[in-house]
Amino acid sequence: MSQTNEAGPSNLVEVTSPEHFTEIMQQDLTRVSLLNFYAPWAEPCRQMNEVVREIAIKYPQVLCLIIEAESLPDVSESFDIEAVPSFVLLRGHTLLSRISGANASALSAAVATHVAPTRVNGTGSVSKTSAAPRAAADTYDASTRNGTAATHADDQDEEDVVPETEEQIFARCKKLMEQRKVMLFMKGDPDTPKCGFSQKTVNLFRQEKVEFGHYDILKDENVRQGLKKLNEWPTFPQIIVNGELIGGLDILKESIESGEFQEMLQG
């Protein structure tokens, strides 16, 4: 199923690979992006694809990315997509909203809330975000009515197995973050990563000869969700230096290229 054609708006783009996704997202960290996770066999997705096309036409300043969830599991898993259709609204790395299920009005309202009218000179007051993103401002879940489970999402771990308070979870997360000078919270382990972004992070660390500790967030749902909330960062891997989050793979690459990462290691 093709999501773009010659007559389609230029800001409606079908993602073809994890590398393609990363490249597009790094082009403008001030731009609002709408990620549309779909499956070609799901009727609700076909309906919502048209809604996204209409949004792309109405808001030319919004980058609308069409992502086939099962064909690009690395991207889907990095945003914890467990059903299709699902939508993630971002500004740079800042998570603005998540909508799960075929709810056109909720999606349109979320975009309208976070997107300012187009300006002639294209300027605005939004600052670039190299810092960790804030948590989602709002979330809508319609998956119980018309969302379709994605077959690749097999990590719906049991929640609240351990009766920990949020304070206890945060304390445990902080302790883990401070175990080594550099900590990598990833899916899987360095020898058997379960996510392409985690694999690339490990490869980059090894290439730069960085000594690091690691933790498999798939083994503990409390830690997984706790890190997202504590660090205000919605995806994995998460890279920690001196007990503080620096970001994910793309920010790691940027900081290595600029020399900032080496400075942090020496600090």
TrEMBL record:
Report any Pfam family annotated for this entry. Answer: Thioredoxin
Q: Does the keyword Iron apply?
A: yes
Segments of skewed composition (Low complexity): 129-143
Record's GO cellular component terms:
cytosol; nucleus
Span list, region Disordered: 120-162
**InterPro entries per the record?**
Glutaredoxin, GRX_PICOT-like, Monothiol_GRX-rel, Thioredoxin-like_sf, Thioredoxin_domain
Write out the GO biological process terms.
intracellular iron ion homeostasis
Q: Which organism is it from?
A: Ustilago bromivora
Its Gene Ontology molecular function terms? 2 iron, 2 sulfur cluster binding; disulfide oxidoreductase activity; metal ion binding
What is the name listed in the Swiss-Prot or TrEMBL entry for this protein? Probable glutaredoxin
User: What keywords sit in the KW lines?
Assistant: Iron, Iron-sulfur, Metal-binding
Function, as annotated: Monothiol glutaredoxin involved in the biogenesis of iron-sulfur clusters. Binds one iron-sulfur cluster per dimer. The iron-sulfur cluster is bound between subunits, and is complexed by a bound glutathione and a cysteine residue from each subunit.
Name all Thioredoxin domain ranges.
2-116
Record-stated family = Belongs to the glutaredoxin family. Monothiol subfamily.
